[in-house]
Amino acid sequence: MNARQDNAGNDSKFRIMTSNIWGNCGDNAIANRDDNLADVFMEYMPDVLGLQEVSPKARREPVSLFDLLDGRYTEVAVPIGELSNNYTPLLHTQRLTVLESGFHRFSGLNDSNSKSITWAVFECTRSGQRFAVCNVHFYWKSDQAGEEARRSNSRELMSVADAIQQRWPVPVCCIGDFNCRIGSAPVQHLFEHGFLDAQVTAAVQTSDSNAHHPYPKWDEAQQAFVHGPAPTGTYREAIDHVFYRGDQAAVGEYVTVLDQKALDASDHCPVYADFSFEGGGKL
């Protein structure tokens, strides 16, 4: 469902997707998971793709996910300072040009420096419409220290989003693995500062699903991951989100991708929203 070949013919609509690829996998094989993810991304063809958990191991694969997407997607170049890896890269198709980009590592608790924001301001090469995307991964532990870390993550994300919109009067989308539900204090902080939830405001309501689920199983005989279970629960339990701020942004459809290839690739389903940015993308 909702797959497409291309969106280049409609210069006012853009598909924005987030996907935690389960890249912090230690000694576990990646095996067929990259191929499954590439197939899913190429089928649904988001214009902007935000990934989380892109570990050094994920980048070092003999044929990595980036190799499989080469020719259709380009990674946004950002300075990461003294860090050795960007775990939260943004990718985009050729219909978009990057006007400005940046990176922010969250302060405080931060395993392997993997919790960060990669952001970019995009312009459609044909229509000139502009919008910004922040790809984020909040801290994960469920204890009190983890909760405080996510509150801090939310405040820092707001500072980044505010700074972008001060320089660029365009809508901004914040996507990613927030590791907290919509009723949590970190997410409510975003809502209190003008952000909306794409799942709630979508004109076409097709997804009321949690996107987080148990890991797929390793099949020794096949040397592959299989039988990834579908998530249980509703969107109220979800920790992967698409939020946005900007009066000229509208959401057509919000989708949690439940294809078996997606379920066999990670413990998170990809999630996307189809946006239109009327009036040139101005606030």
UniProtKB/TrEMBL annotation:
Statement: the UniProt record of this protein carries the keyword Electron transport: no
Lineage: superkingdom: Bacteria
Domain Endonuclease/exonuclease/phosphatase: start-end pairs: 17-268
One GO CC annotation: cytoplasm
Swiss-Prot/TrEMBL keywords: DNA damage, DNA repair, Hydrolase, Magnesium, Metal-binding, Nuclease
GO molecular function: 5'-tyrosyl-DNA phosphodiesterase activity; metal ion binding; nuclease activity; single-stranded DNA binding
Pfam families attached to this UniProt entry: Exo_endo_phos
Entries under PANTHER family matching the protein: TRAF AND TNF RECEPTOR-ASSOCIATED PROTEIN (PTHR15822), TYROSYL-DNA PHOSPHODIESTERASE 2 (PTHR15822:SF4)
Entry protein name: Endonuclease/exonuclease/phosphatase domain-containing protein
Species: Paenibacillus solanacearum
